[in-house]
């Protein structure tokens, strides 16, 4: 293939087809008509002498040649995107840019609320849109720039993917239960812990958590009586009944919750880690560099206030 005769815009078409596996969806993502997208795909097929994408079960799936091309094509586009974004200036005092952040209720309260308070006090016109984090890492939404930044958590030291990431905070777990709980007193034994009925906080619907993995190593199991997607309402839930929960220490403050006791878990648990994650195509995005710096500052303030 002669690159001088190759329309460089077709790389964008190729990437959109990789991302969507649909001619019509790829056309929408590039603001093209479906006929224009079909014509572009035809030109790609001629240029590479390969069908590149074939229809199967309602999807346009890449051929082996297309799969071979994909990592190199995406690396090239990512590099060009970094150069283009790096040339764009960003001024926090005059910008009216909207940043889209995917977060859980916990990371929203921890990081987004302080960020919003700061922005409002400084009369910035920057806008923040928070959406529910529906999976641990929404890779497609990040790569397509539908999401600028993800605030998520893990028990691993890093996510095993090609995304850019930075740990903001790590911390311990605590057990919460109502005062005068029939099984829970100032010291919590493993026997009583396992005898209690537990609430599992699972934003993405998993039926077990890291705690269950640790119990399994000991040949032990707990009774999960309820699974809920949101963390910040769990203290209220356990305060009114005999359910107990194991939650991040940063999610609770004794002075904020009544009729609830906070205890050490009866077994050693791995620390949870809160990360911010973004697509490497936007490493040089001046606006995102500013946003990440603000979140780093908030993380440092949280740790200072909690210590």
Automatic annotation (TrEMBL):
UniProt keyword Acetylation present: no
UniProt keyword Aminoacyl-tRNA synthetase, yes or no: no
Keyword terms of this UniProt record: DNA-binding, Transcription, Transcription regulation
Domain HTH lysR-type: 1-63
Pfam families, per the entry: HTH_1 (PF00126), LysR_substrate (PF03466)
UniProt family annotation: Belongs to the LysR transcriptional regulatory family.
UniProt name for this protein: LysR family transcriptional regulator
């Amino acid at each position: 293939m002669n690159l001088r005769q190759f329309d460089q815009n077709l790389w964008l078409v190729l990437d959109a087809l990789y991302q969507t596996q649909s001619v019509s969806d790829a056309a929408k993502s590039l603001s093209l008509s479906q006929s224009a997208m079909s014509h572009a795909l035809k030109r790609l097929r001629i240029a590479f002498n390969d069908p590149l994408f074939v229809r199967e079960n309602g999807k346009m799936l890449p051929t082996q040649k297309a799969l071979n091309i994909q990592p190199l094509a995406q690396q090239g586009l990512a590099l060009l995107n970094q150069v283009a974004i790096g040339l764009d200036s960003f001024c926090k005092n005059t910008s009216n840019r909207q940043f889209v952040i995917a977060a859980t209720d916990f990371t929203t309260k921890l990081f987004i609320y302080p960020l919003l308070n700061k922005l409002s006090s400084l009369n910035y016109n920057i806008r923040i849109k928070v959406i529910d984090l529906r999976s641990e890492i929404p890779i497609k939404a990040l790569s397509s720039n539908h999401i600028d930044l993800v605030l998520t958590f893990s028990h691993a030291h890093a996510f095993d993917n090609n995304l850019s990431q930075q740990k903001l905070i790590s911390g311990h777990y605590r057990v919460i239960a109502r005062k005068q709980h029939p099984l829970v007193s100032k010291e919590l034994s493993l026997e009583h812990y396992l005898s209690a009925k537990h609430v599992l906080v699972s934003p993405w619907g998993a039926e077990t958590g890291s705690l269950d993995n640790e119990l399994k190593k000991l040949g032990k199991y707990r009774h999960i009586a309820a699974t809920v997607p949101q963390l910040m309402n769990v203290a209220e839930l356990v305060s009114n009944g005999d359910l107990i929960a194991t939650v991040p220490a940063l999610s609770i403050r004794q002075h904020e919750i009544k009729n609830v006791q906070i205890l050490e878990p009866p077994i050693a648990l791995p620390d949870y880690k809160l990360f911010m994650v973004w697509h490497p195509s936007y490493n040089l995005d001046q606006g995102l560099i500013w946003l990440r710096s603000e979140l780093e500052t908030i993380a440092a303030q949280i740790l200072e206030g909690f210590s």
